[in-house]
Amino acid sequence: MTESKSSPLTSELYEYMIDHNPPLDPVQRALVETTRSLLPESAHLQVAEEQAPLLAFLVRLTGARDILEIGTFTGLSALSMAQALPPGGRLIALDISEEWTAHAREAWAKAGVADRVELRLGDGLESVRALPAEPHLDLVFLDADKEHYVDYWEEVVPRLRPGGLIVADNVFFHGEVVDPGASPAGEGVKAFNDHVAADRRMEAVMLTVADGLTLARKRND
Ligand SMILES: C[S@@+](CC[C@H](N)C(=O)[O-])C[C@H]1O[C@@H](n2cnc3c(N)ncnc32)[C@H](O)[C@@H]1O
How far is the CA of 75 from the centre of ligand 1 (A)? Predict the structure, then answer.
């Protein structure tokens, strides 16, 4: 068995990491707090706090101008990526819940990025299939229904520009990916991880960020 060199993430170490990352801005912080107070049952769906600056970093690093987000919830990940877009850049956000994304719309407006974000409500897979078929996306953040991660991947890869990036969240699915009795969502993520690892069109690395995060670049060679 390969030995891990990862330091166990104690609460103290986690706080230390948060303290040494770019802090959430006031709109982002308020969104985290509103989500926790108004939606206590569902707040766990929100991306981890450290993922907001990471996503912004990836947008700036790649210079992404055309971003697709699949799974928006109350809008923290989209907010963070939209704030990092260059002038003229845009983000299409997909979700099925009008109720949850109402909070997202409010936060985007408060942060002054509503003009660069387009929310499309409905089934995510149908919405992706309705996008132009040719390569036009620079970055895709995949964070919706886990049972369909492989289907999303298959729709998104051909629409990604060469060199484009897919960021997939929850690739550990709370540890279920190594559990023989995984839930349907856990099985969906397991199938996704195997699918990604075998896909020669992409170069992918799986990282121990929050609940597991895969970064995959479309080969241009
Ligand atoms: C983990 S949350 C997304 C968290 C979000 N990225 C954030 O920053 O807080 C997953 C989202 O996927 C959405 N979702 C679930 N099934 C969906 C579907 N079939 N089509 C589109 N969205 C879906 C849910 O409504 C939920 O808001």
Answer: 10
